[in-house]
Amino acid sequence: MAPELEQAIGAAQAAVQQQGDTVRSLKASLKDGNAQQSQVEEAIQKLQQLKLELSDHQKAYEKATGKTSSQNKEAFRAALTNTLERRMFYIPSFKIYGSVAGFYDYGPPGCAIKQNMTQAWRQHFVLEENMLEVECPAVTPEAVLKASGHVERFTDFMVTDTKTGDCYRADHLLEAALEAALEDAKAPLSPEARKEAEQMLAGVGEMGADALHAALTKFGVVAPDTKNPI
């Protein structure tokens, strides 16, 4: 039942996205005199109907499983991103040329938020902690990244929730599990197990795929949101 509902949600989301693009295109054509107001209104009505159908699918999934679907989470994330971009909080740099991952342009509200965060940082670290501020280039030469090992072995291993498909960084899950085990007063680790966990925690960033898999299995790590197997 759940997989069918997930597929229905995915199809409904795709339909809403496509119809939203159609509405935006018609509105642009209306300004140029290449579309009629009635066409725009008809497209908007169809978009509203598709959104209602999507909402019905999401409610059915939540009623059947008691959980929020991964498709629903992705829809919320996409809607939030779309809103932030339309209101010019930020947009991907060079977007009309395909953009470049990790580069963003801030609009007026985004600049204001960034400035507030910078001031809060300075208030705490510079004024209260008596630290000194420095400013460095945002771009790092390849020679530095080679020397640090990032070029040859910088890889983030991922795991997925076997039921929802949500992805998590394996090292982050293992770190959280080790810290929880070390801090668990109700079921304290033996001295030997504590030493092993502390050593493992210190070296999580250097673990390969096989070592991470073995450690995750040993400590019974599961997906943090759903407690499903990974």
Name its key features.
230 residues; mainly alpha; two-stranded antiparallel ribbon; 9 helices; 63% helix
Concise description?
This protein is mainly α and 230 residues long. Helices cover 63% and strands 5% of the residues. The chain contains nine helices and four strands, in the order H-H-H-E-E-H-H-H-E-E-H-H-H.
Would you spell out the secondary-structure blueprint of this structure?
Elements: H1 2-32, H2 37-65, H3 70-86, E1 90-92, E2 104-106, H4 108-128, H5 142-148, H6 150-153, E3 158-160, E4 167-169, H7 170-183, H8 191-202, H9 209-218
Helix pairs in contact: 1-2, 1-3, 7-8, 7-9
Whole-angstrom Rg: 24 Å
Overall mean pLDDT: 84
How far apart the termini lie comes to 21 Å
Poorly predicted residue ranges: none
General form: extended
Major sheet: arrangement of strands: 1-2
Your description of this structure?
With 230 residues, the protein is mostly helical. The chain contains 9 helices and 4 strands. A hairpin with a 6-residue loop joins strand 3 and strand 4. The mean pLDDT is 84.
